[in-house]
Structures are given as C-alpha cells and as structure tokens.
Design goal:
By secondary structure, the chain is α+β, with helices and mostly antiparallel strands. It is built from three helices and four strands. 28% of the residues are buried.
Length: 113
Amino acid sequence: MNLLEYKLNQLPDHKTLISAEQYPELLGQIDQWQVIEKDGIDRLFCVFKSDDFVAAMQLAHAITEIAEQVDHHPALLIEWGKLSVTWWSHNLGGLHINDFIMAANTQKIYNAQ
C-alpha cells in the first residue's frame, strides 16, 4: 500500500491499530521517521531541518493546514532551525494507518520546499 495514494479527505475510519510487525514496511515509505515509545504509546517521530526559525514556522503552518483538513493533529515542537513532528492516534492510544499517511504527507510537504 502506497501511503501517498490515500486522499486526505478519504482516510480510513476503522479503529484498528497498526501492529509492530507492520512498522518496517510502512516506515520504508517515510524516510527519516522512526517509531518512538512515550508514556507506553508508540508514536511516529521525525525532526526536519530548516534554515531558520521562520522556515520552521512555515513548515509547521503547512502541516497545520493538512491536519485541519482531516481533523487529525500532530505534536509540533518549533525551534530555531528545526521542527520536530510526532504523529499518533490519541483516541486509540497508538499508531493507526492514518498516522503513517499523515507522516508521508508531512514528508511530501518538507521535500517540496
């Protein structure tokens, strides 16, 4: 399954978490991302480098735009020269396919800069 083939307005709405056995295949489609565990919950995490604070803010704003489209929101940490992004499904307590789809779209936005 190609993560970028999903249309943002047609994300899967089932409530099934992705199993840890599926992580490698999906992570293979989203360079630089890793699964981290925080508070007992698996999350997708990536740090994106930027030229300065303004560029990091612009990337955060672009991610906000797609997050609002699908009502699925990441944790964002904006710092000078970088933006840390963490996706997980708060309501399910782990990683859903939508988190991987949103990570792929986040990567696409970053790569298009």
